[in-house]
Every structure is written in structure tokens, then in C-alpha cells.
Amino acid sequence: MSQASTPHAVVTGASSGIGAAIAQHLLAAGWQVTGLSRRPAPIDHELFTHREADLTSDASTLAAAEGLTPSAFIHAAGLMTTGALGEFDNARGITMWQVHVHAASLLADRFIGSMGPGGRIVLIGSRTARGAATRSQYAATKAAYIGLVRSWAAELAPRGITANIVSPATTDTPMLTDPSRGASVPRMPPMGRFIKPEEVAATVGFLLSEPAAPITGQNIVICGGSSL
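The structure corresponding to this sequence follows.
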């Protein structure tokens, strides 16, 4: 990364799951990491800083981002609410849109002014973006990432900044047992186990590296065979 001797990444959702794994992966690689989440992250590292942020609130989100000038922004915060058509929890659906899509847009818009050549944006999507029964509201928020990222990639390519999505299949995180999933049973990938958060983090780490400079506007699916 060409922006600084110690590159700086902002990671949302760093308190658990994929976000925490990404933060830890980057710290091990020598990055300075600022984690944005409602709860403190269980990370004790001299290069890690936590800032409390409620991503459903513009004021809280922007306050947490104040003064940050990262060379990479990774949006890993997420939640899932399920429900068949005719049984939507519309309030939760709006919350998912705020956390997944609106917060990503708000923060990317805030950080892009400080990014130079080598800058990186990565959104953590989901294989479910292709559609899944009882998960339409969730799927719609993740599908929106494709429009965002491909548009940003086209705008930012001349500046040497990339934007990509990493979309895992069912990943072994606390979301698997979240009561808001309702009766939606996690689907085991054909490989016979769930995706590991560390595997998602490693893919993100590569996309932030210099060898990944030509990769932009892409949706990298980590499916364990689920797409076959």
C-alpha cells in the first residue's frame, strides 16, 4: 500500500464474527486498524483502536468517523432478519438497509476524500444476494452492494482506488444462532463445513494488497461449493 508506511484500515462490525477476524488479520499483517461497532471489540493490540458507533444513526456513524483518514475501508457490520412474503418485520428490514447499505454509503463517502492511489473499499456481502426463500429483505440489501461497488469501481479506477465485494456462504459466526434468523436454518456448504471467518479475512487481506490492484468492481464468492 503506497499511502503510508503503516497503512490504516477502518473496519465496521469489528466486535465479533467476520469483522473481528478481518481486524485481527490486518493487525497481524502490520496494519493500523480502527474498529467501528456498538460493542467494544475483544482485541488487545497496540495498533488497534475502537470507536463506538451505532450504524443505524447518521449522527453516531459520522461522529465515529470524525478525523479518520484510512487507506482502506471494510464494511463487515451486518445482521439478518428472515421472514416469508406476507410476514415481513418491516422495522427490522429498514434496520438491515440502514446498517448494510446506508452506513456503507455514508462511510465510503466520508473516507474517499482522503484516499489516494492504493486505496481500497471492500464490502462484506453474501451469497444470499442471489435470492433465498424467507430471506428476501436480507438478500435485497446485499444485492444492493453490487450496484454500489460496480459504480464506485468505475468512478475510482482512474485514481488507483479499488472497490470490491467478498460474499461468503454460511459462515461460522454468532449470526448462525441469532434468534432474529427465525426458522431459517443455516445451510451447510457441500464441502461439509461452514466457511471460517479467517478464510473471509484472508480474502479481504489479499484484496487490500498491492498485487490485487487490478481487481476492482468484483464480487468474490466464497461458497464452499454451494454455487455448483
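Helices lie at 17-28, 58-65, 90-111, 136-156, 197-207.
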